[in-house]
Amino acid sequence: MSQDETPIINDENYEMLIKWYKQEGIENIGFEDDDCYDEHMNYIGKGPVGYYELLQEVTQVAKRIQKEDYFLKKAGRRIPIIILEYEDTWYTRKATLEANVHGEACDYLEYAK
């Protein structure tokens, strides 16, 4: 769901996503692995099973867009791609850093610290 509760993945996309997860050997989608918490029960994981793998795919697409200078060609300047979710996490910041190969998101990442 988007922040305004609008479905992002419809039935057709859902089936395609589940097929991709199976193809990648990802099981127990949506559940947390046991190693998501340290000995003090502090969350150290990468989201529910399947989320991090999907995040990596999104990061690679964004990285390709930036490497090909898509925004520079279309808008005349480089525009950052910010990868977010409802909460700011270390792994979305890492994905944003990795995706913006020319440093487009440096200001955002500095602010996020």
Q: How many extended strands?
A: 0
Question: What's the helix-strand series?
Answer: HHHHH
Number of helices: 5
Give a quick account of the main beta sheet: strands, pairing sense, barrel closure: none
Q: Could you report the average pLDDT, rounded to the nearest whole number?
A: 84
The gyration radius over C-alpha positions equals 16 Å
Helix fraction by DSSP (H/I, runs of at least 4): 40-55%
Strand content: under 5%
Alpha-beta classification: mainly alpha
Note the overall shape: globular
How many domain modules?
1
First-residue to last-residue Cα separation: 26 Å
Uncertain regions spanning at least 5 consecutive residues: none
Give an overview in words:
- Helices cover 47% and strands 0% of the residues.
- Helix 2 (51-67) packs parallel to helix 4.
- It has one domain.
- It has helices at residues 11-23, 51-67, 70-75, 90-99, 106-112.
- The chain has 113 residues and is mainly α.
In short:
This protein has 113 residues and is mainly α.
Strand-helix topology:
Elements: H1 11-23, H2 51-67, H3 70-75, H4 90-99, H5 106-112
Helix pairs in contact: 2-4
Output the keywords.
113 residues, mainly alpha, 5 helices, 47% helix, 0% strand
